[in-house]
Amino acid sequence: MKKLVIVLVTLLISQFVLAQSGTPQVKEFEAYVEKARLAWQVPGMAVAVVKDGKVISMKGYGQRALGADDKVDTQTLFACASTTKAMTAVCMGILVDEGKVKWDDAVVQYLPEFQLYDPYVTRELKIRDLFTHNSGVGNTDFFWGAMTIPANDILRKMKEVEPSYSLRSSFIYQNIFYLAAGKVIEKISGQKWEDFIQARVFAPLKMTRTYPVLKAMPKNNVAKPHYMVNGTIKVITPTNADEIGPAGSVNASIVDISKWMSCMLDSSKYEGGRLLKAATWKELFKPQVIVPDDQFYPTMVLTKPNWITYGLGWFQHDYKGKKINFHTGSLAGQIAIHAQLPEAKLGIYVFGNYDHAEVRHALVYKAFDLFALGGNRDWSAEFLTLYKNIQAGNDKAEKEFEAKRVLHTSPSKSLDEYAGIYKDNLYGEMEIKVVNGKLEVVANQLLRATLSHWNYDTFRGPYDKDWYGTAMAVFQLNATGQVEKVNFEGMEFRKEKR
Fold first, then answer.
1. For all residues of the chain together, what is the average pLDDT?
2. Does 2.40.128.50 match the CATH number of domain 415-495?
3. pLDDT of residue 11
4. What sign for the dihedral angle of Cα 298, 304, 307, 313?
């Protein structure tokens, strides 16, 4: 009976979308999406456009996985990735409306165990700061990308991270503070973040095919992530972001996301109520931080905004004199973008299953031009040229680096002397073994690579997950000529004494 109800609801939604999709503009847009998808080589996409409270386009494009006959449809699950952040901000807003927390309360009031390197920052950090990427702490994605430790351990280790700048003086994108926000929600509500967001956001919006964490997701009708490896696009293993769930672990269908989009465009209203008070909803989109140019997307070279800001879970900039709210989402082999043109009551959401397919940006501006602002620039073609040039520059830099390799050098020590256990309080543990005349590196039981001698005391080679690319280890000797440290991909470990 439950399956029958879901089928009937899906049919009704599909009929509604079809009723809205007969206009020449919609047909033009959908044709543009497919043409752009092919140009960018994205295996599969799902795109929805909402205007004036109605879904005017919602469609799946391409395949869930290359080499399989499994087309993307409107119920296919994709990773929301960092577009999850706006959802977590709404969760906190719900608690603000209930009088259980204030945006400017001190974080330690709720999480006394959350300590940062600088005691002043620990004391002064506000709930608002958890959402704005301006705490002074630099990127710490190695806690979940290069380590396998639980969420509470990640938060405890934040005390060991030295600041990159002073509190609220700049901006560096920071996932771990959204994890802390989720823990505050848990502490106040008595529910885990994933249970809270399910009950207080997804259930009211009838988002029945949305899953807060990867481990809860079904196996049917799921888009597979893809990556370009040595010139070939291949299916890769999905990234598990569950330990930093509030920053980016939600997966959803485009049908469900259209409901979320409509709610966020209409001051958080939905059929039967609203998620937030109007003032709290406005607070989410109020510019909180100025974003430096070097922290933004290359697409801005072409769109040329006059200002770039960040709200509570949303980037913002001007386009043709109008304010845009948006956020991207990226996990290995998976992309998303959610963008709003509030003045036109227009929103678009794009899912894709190919790593950093920046066609997502092109479709945003195309939708805004076509359905609201006018203009006929081919954003897909322009952005594709832009990113091809960026890739060409990266390839050139790689060749230049390789050309600087000093040939005919030998390691300072025998391979066995580089082997051993290396540890660091911040980065964890790494083991190096000699296997078949090469160094086999295993960092935190997660990152694995096989390194050959490069030059001097530097070794270089592929990760076992080939889409990770090439790893490099630079060893350092002490005054007595013994191997003392290794810098592995920017993480420094000290060798344990035997």
1. 94
2. yes
3. 41
4. negative
